[in-house]
Amino acid sequence: MFTDFSAWWHTMDMFQKVYWMIAIPFSVFFLLQTILSIFAGDVDHDASGHSDAGGTDDGIPFQFFTIKNMVAFFTIFGWCGIACVNGGVGHGLTIFISLVSGLLMMLLMASIFYFMSKLTESGNLNIKNAVNKTGTVYIPIPAGRKGEGKIQINVQSSLRELDAVTDEAENIPTGTLIIVTEVLNNNLLVVKKA
What b/e string do you get for 53-78 counting C-beta neighbours within 10 Å, with b at 16 or more? Predict the structure, then answer.
């Protein structure tokens, strides 16, 4: 078997050998990277050394130069080059096709990860999303902002229990339907009867 490999290797010119030397190791890296992403979670480092450990960062920019993208680039670059050489394409066109294919793969992967990052939810409540929503009183709310009660309200696709006050002249009892009119100090809701 080794003699067959050796004979095969010596029949190629240096141009083909370079493409094979790129395609094989980067294909192995690509396979290992894929397996590790599946079983160990998604950890990536951009070209500046910063890591993205699959967190839910609201400001994830479009990342073109990452290790994943570079491995994908060289994998596709190598295999496209081998395919072009075996197809009888000239050296200049082979390099061009390989470069374009690798760059398109990088663009595709960067786009996929960018749009996937937009699908995540931070889990943080933006209390201003409660304004103009309806809910029910859970703990009675004293009239004239003389004390706080609690309401149950559906905000950001989940039922929340939040503190509330009212400007109404009478207390709002448990079970009453209310509407949120404003937010005070980023944590207290002002409500009125619906």
Answer: eeeeeeeeeebbebebbbbbbbbbbb
Question: Counting beta carbons within 10 angstroms of the beta carbon of residue 158, is it exposed (0 to 12), middle (13 to 18) or buried (19 or more)?
Answer: exposed
Supply the pLDDT for residue 53: 44
Instruction: Tell me how many helices (H) and strands (E) the chain has.
Output: 4, 7
Q: At what angle do helices 67-86 and 91-117 cross, to 10 degrees?
A: 150
Q: Are 172 and 140 in contact (CB under 8 A)?
A: yes
- Taking alpha carbons only, the member of 167, 125, 121, 127 closest to residue 143 is 167
pTM above 0.70, yes or no: no
Banded model confidence at residue 52, pLDDT cuts 50, 70, 90 = very low
Give the DSSP letter of residue 171. Answer: -
How many angstroms separate the CA atoms of 73 and 30, rounded?
10
Distances (CA, A) of 146 to 140, 141, 166, 167, 187: 12, 9, 8, 9, 17
Report whether 139 contacts 174 (CB < 8 A): yes
